[in-house]
Amino acid sequence: MATLELSTTAALEARERTREDLRAAAGADRHVAPAPSAFGGHLPALDGVRGLAILMVLVLHFVAQTTATSRYEAAVNWVLSYGLLGVDLFFVLSGFLITGILYDSRADPNYFRSFYMRRVLRIFPLYYGVLAVVFFVVPLIPALRGSEIASLREHQAWAWLYGVNVYVATHGGWGSLSYIEHFWSLAVEEHFYFVWPLVVWRLAPRPRILMRTAVGIAVVSFVARVTASLSGLSPVAATVLTPFQLDALCVGGLLAVALRQPGGEAALRRAVWPLALAAASVLVLQFALHRFTDFGLELMRAIRLGVFRLLFAALLLHALFAPASSMAGRAFRSAPMTWLGKYSYGLYVYHHFLSYYLVKHGTEFVLARAVGSHALAVVIQALAGMAVSMTAAWASYELVEKHFLRLKRLWPSAPKPALVAESAPVVA
Q1: For 310-319, how does the pLDDT look when each residue is reduced to its tens digit (9 = 90+)?
Q2: What's the CA gap between 7 and 263, in Å, rounded?
Q3: Model pTM?
Q4: C-beta separation of 427 from 127 below 8 A
Q5: Terminal CA-CA length for the chain
Q6: 41: which DSSP letter?
């Protein structure tokens, strides 16, 4: 009996020590350096995804928004108008990359300071530099003065405070801020940066809860957008307001955390094609259905954006997992696509100043008289506009932005795996 009693006591003591060890481990989890992620750092394939996103936006603004003069041009413009979805691809990608950075650096004692200082160095010099030129330099040049610039100056506080999306939603929609209306998506990104780092930091020790939170926010955002659309909210407001964009950002964040869990990569690899096929099937059925009836059109339009975002999630994963020798791997890692991705932030910021001016003044009609074809004039103008925008983005990065980025060394991010290249700027 004595032996049995001693054995029982020892077992209870061992169990209690195990419980104490587990509690201690849980409390210290935030401060233990996480294992390096094989998907941290600079991933060239995702530069290519970013390049695809900015290319979609460029064709939207330089081609799809021109005035069609034939059924053929109208059809082309309709197809290319879906280039607006390039912004949604940016959001999914940004949610993935930002969440990955935050999750990998969760044990960093300077977690918040490092993240925000690195974001400031990447985003603010270009953004606020452009605003300074638009609001302070342009009005000093007589040839560039005009009612639109005067109107922008009257409402400039919205831009300085990252509120362009709110202004566009509440003051007349597209065109209300002319040259800088495309900054709405940058405002959404900035609002996301204000809150999401705290969510990741708080929940990172419990990744399952973090993933459930991402899913919950995405579902609430999706339902809110559908409800708002069916309640009569303007399509512009449903597009630009931050609460209605969180599903794209959180879907990307969900993928980033899931990929870093045991067995996560294998599970996501298996999910890529079923997810892509399911999303594509819904979209094809929706388009086919509305060739014959308008029944449920408003509901399906509201749902369609969420389905596209799931399709982009599958695209991101496919690009990430595709072997470098495969067709997709070569496409996303190609020099043109990665080049576009590298300079995508500057391209996004600069291009609309030119495309807005060209489209507003119908300059392709002047060119059409010289070349004898409106369609050819649109192509020439678009290629020239993109070339000028790319030159501006390259010069801006190489002459200005790069020098600010070098200061990131003062606020190092999470350590990267030895086999992964040094992190490139994350741009949404």
Answers
A1: 999 999 999 9
A2: 38
A3: 0.87
A4: no
A5: 70
A6: S
Tokens 């032996």 correspond to what residue?
A: 3
Query: How many angstroms separate the CA atoms of 345 and 428, rounded?
Result: 7
Q: What would the pLDDT profile of 24-50 be if each residue is shown by its tens digit?
A: 444 444 444 455 555 666 788 999 999
Read off the amino acid at residue 134: V
CB-based burial of residue 361 (10 Å sphere; 0-12 exposed, 13-18 middle, 19+ buried)? Answer: exposed
Q: How many CA atoms lie within 13 A of 6 on its CB side?
A: 3
Helix 184-203 to helix 111-132 angle (10° resolution) is: 170
Name the residue among 424, 425, 411 with its Cα closest to residue 114.
411
Q: Which amino acid is at 412?
A: P
Distance CA 213, CA 190 (A): 20
SS3 290: coil
Alpha helices (runs of H) in 343-421, residue ranges in sequence order: 344-360, 363-371, 374-396, 402-405
pLDDT tens, residue by residue, 89-100: 999 999 999 999
CA–CA distance, 112 with 268 (Å, rounded to integer)? 29
Nearest to 80 by CA among 94, 104, 109, 60: 60
For residue 47, give both structure tokens: 């530069």
Domain borders along the chain are 40-410
Q: Give the number of residues written for the chain.
A: 428
Nearest to 240 by CA among 193, 311, 173, 307: 173
